[in-house]
Amino acid sequence: MTMAIMTETETTENRTSATAQVDLPDEKRDPPATIATELGATVGNVRCENPFVVAENIDVYYGDNHAIKNVTLEIGKSEVIALIGPSGCGKSTFLRCLNRMNDSIESARVTGKITLDGQDIYGKGLDPVALRARVGMVFQKPNPFPKSIYDNVAYGPRIHGLATDRAELDDIVHRSLERAGLLKEVKDRMDEPGTGLSGGQQQRLCIARTIAVDPEVILMDEPCSALDPIATARIEDLIDELSEDYAIVIVTHSMQQAARVSRRVAYFHLGLLVEVDETDKIFTNPQHRLTEDYITGRIG
Amino acid sequence: MNGLATTREKVEAGLRRRRRTERVFRLTGILATTVGVLFLGVFFADLIGKGSSAFFQTFIQLDVEFSEDILGPGSTVDLEYADFDGLARSALRRAFPEVTSRGERRELNRLVSVGAGYQLRDMLVADPALLGARRSVWVPASSTVDMFMKGNIDPALDEALRPLSDPQIGWIKGLQDRGRIAKHFNRALFTNGDSREPELAGIRGALMGSFYMLVVTVLLAFPIGVAAAIYLEEFAPRSRWSDLIEVNINNLAAVPSIVFGLLGLAVFINWAALPRSAPLVGGLVLSLLTLPVIIIASRAAIKAVPPSIREAALGIGASQMQVVFHHVMPLAMPGMLTGTIIGMSRALGESAPLLMIGMVAFIVDVPGGFSDPATALPVQIYLWADSPERAFAERTSAAIMVLLGFLLLMNLTAVIVRKRMERKW
Amino acid sequence: MQSTTLILLLAAIAVSAFYLGRSRSLALVGGPRKGSALHSLPGYYGYFTAIWCLLPALAAMLIWISLEARIIVAIVISGLPDAQQALSAGELDLLVNNIRNLAAGDVVSGALDSVLSDAAIRLQELTSISRNMLTVLTLGLAVVGGVVAWLRIKPDFRARNRVEHIVLIALIVASSIAIFTTIGIVLSVLFEAIRFFREVPVAEFLFGLNWSPQTAIRSDQVGSSGSFGAVPLFTGTLLITGIAMAVAVPVGLMTAIYLAEYSTSRVRGLAKPLLEVLAGIPTVVYGFFAALTVAPWVRRAGETMGFEVASESALAAGLVMGIMIIPLVSSLADDAINAVPAAMRDGALGLGSTRSETMIRVILPAALPGIVGGILLAVSRAIGETMIVVMAAGLAANLTANPFEAVTTVTVQIVTLLVGDQEFDSAKTLAAFALGLMLFVVTLLLNVVGLNVVRKYREQYE
Predict the structure, then answer these.
(1) Which of A77, C36, C299, C300 has minimal CB crowding within 10 Å?
(2) Is B5 part of any domain?
(3) pLDDT of residue C322
(4) Is the Cβ pair B7, A162 closer than 8 Å?
């Protein structure tokens, strides 16, 4: 099934599109016929071949604030999908729905259905704890625990009881650090605090900490925004490598980064999922006026 | 994703145990929170249960004849030494003509408080024309009668074990039948000083003592505290000396209050030879005690004033002193006032240091100035709590209710000041 | 003249000095329109005059009043017949007291004789002379100070700088009072404690097992100089503090955790003010509750379980003190927990930790220094707490670790030794200051360490 392309008959006149157009008065008069300008349903293709995570009609409210509006999106197995959009567009909120991190915000309310490998993640049968073991998360600012490097990586396996003895735990820790490309750098100082590492190393430590739990999906919330370009490049390489084994959803502010690491891109605007498509297509031939404005630098 | 199945299995396997731990932990948290709240509930229930009856007091209606024969046998009435108690006694005797034996009469007289005599004297002083007239007067009953009327003495108990004898209970019943014994609002509690007789003891002396002390405290601690805060925040160069002052103030805030009492005893009383038991000394000690509180709160209030305001004023050529007194201080005033009120409420509840400087004496007179011997409301509570009489326990609870009422009032004022005058930056 | 009248008069002079100074400055430059010719605003010339009017006068007044009483008494004593002058210091004190009471018109203990009444009259005379001299001196200085300042006013006189300089000095003095308070505390307890240790060896005080200061009143009697082994007081204090902390630390910590991590904002909004109420209840009220409600309850509960419970048990006092300290622990723990960055919590939750695992394995270890610092402050509070133990713990200096027995504490003994009439020089009274010194030193150490740990911890995450 393909998603309906926006037609002229759907006239959900919206303040957002109005403001966007006010900013660009010269182009208001005559948009090309292929470009959608109205807001409502998503343009492009929200479906994918081998869906692993499926979000259907998701709405998120923070108290009275309607943060995510009727978002539907499929995420495939072993693909990297980038969520882009201006600040406050709801991309991080959507990301946090996927492992129920919004649960800890008292006023947050999520409606709609999200399935992980066919299982409803907001259903009764699934404990958020077990869910988060399967859907790991890497945060904007590197947040190693104030513990040793070893204990940081061993934390997940320990709480989930993944290792039965010290040797097995050592093995998991080493493998995870190896995968995160950090092992060489920290091999000799496993007992030193994780907070003593550089920013880029800290973020790779956090990635190692996440993959130590052996998740199926990894959510990354602007993982490079606090890092310098060299550290960013290393993380991007790492994401590329990890994409062989994990479904990766990455929120990013940088369009270059989205273009470099992702196979598909989803563009969010004020809580709406405006457009989803293959990365190449989004960046070369966007179907929606707002997407075009964003990638050409006119919003943002 | 090698070993995926086993990972998921392992996680699932541990879930039950982990959920149980989570529940236990959460329940412990709820329990802990309840402990504090529950204590408050029990405490207030106990307090009100014990103390509310003290606001009412038993009175006996007597037909008193202001007879010259009793008051001034022979010649004129000497108000100092006249037998006003005799008036009450004779009125009682008229009410119970059947009581004739000496012993029984003595027991009968014990129904009425010794305060009855003072009351009759005050009546006569206010209106000398009463001499020779007959009036129906409500006089305070003795505290045992009061306790009986409040149900604290069990008439079923063996006579030897209770403070009221069988005939006394009979007479009380007789008065009840005639409607001549009743509970009225206990004005004495608020108008009298301390007394050995529970039915005459009041908190006015203690309240006035506390009032005078707080006046001294606020007059000293507020200006000094604010001045110190201004200096430390706005003028003090970052130096060893200002660091020392800083550490000092924080430590003083945590020094046990009794140590301030020792300071007061050694410095103000023994060295400066100020009078013992005086609100002046109490106020001095309490100002030292509350100074750190006020300084810390005032500094926080000054810190909250955005630097842009200072820069704006400095930019148009104001001196630093003008910036502080014209701009920073008015803006920080709500915070300073709130801090001061909180400090005052702490001072009002403080008792340990006052014990050291002799404010625990038994003082009947209501103090009329800063150097009169006085006590304070919390110390009065301490003194009454020590008294064995049941009637004093009741009054202690009532005094606590009054004290807590004042504290509540002060804290509410602080909240209102903060809400009303607060600015958001 | 009454001192209040004097002060009012002084204030009036200062106010007029302000206006005189102000108008002189304006007059010198030729009227309000030419005010810009002055170095400072006209008001500053007024303040300058007023300050110089008040400062010397107030200083003189303060010195006069503080010395007045002693000098007058000295003169009165020197005027007494030789028989009285030969009296011992204590007896002389009593005599002076009697003279004072007689002069004030109060009841006098002992016989009234002519010596006494003469002295009282002399005292009255001297007092009134002194008051008159004080009035003249103060008002004179006010006028002189004001006039000198007034004469100094010139158009280019830097009045604002002068005034601001004086204000600055006043601010510095105000901020130094905290230091003087500490010095005052140290000196007053140290001085008396040294006098105590001259009579009782330090080692006996610190390590002696027997505390019975009561006999010390009769120090002239052989073998009954009292014994001042303070160990039972220290153990008693520790026992009660231990019980209090056993209540306050777990309950306060779990309350903070529950309110920070689990409760809805409604519950938090309700529970926090209630805890503040708990913190605002005066200690004497807790003491009353401990002695009259909790102690009998503990006793009954203990006896049904077959324990022998003293009517003033350490348990009752400790329990109530623990409850009093709950808000302190919970608010300090709350600060410590909230200082841990939210990213830590998110990180742990994102890995699939339960809330309790997040708390126990990540947040609490990170917050530990802050919590430990808070607990040290709470211990210091418990050790220094007075009213609860005075009212509920008792006086018996038992060397015991049994919470059902009565024990006494350092603070209880300070109160008992100093309340009531006693001469100031006896070992018994001095012992209170020695105990006060111990109390001050121990709580100071706990506070310094506690505050430092808490501050360092906060800085770590700032």
Answers:
(1) C36
(2) no
(3) 96
(4) yes
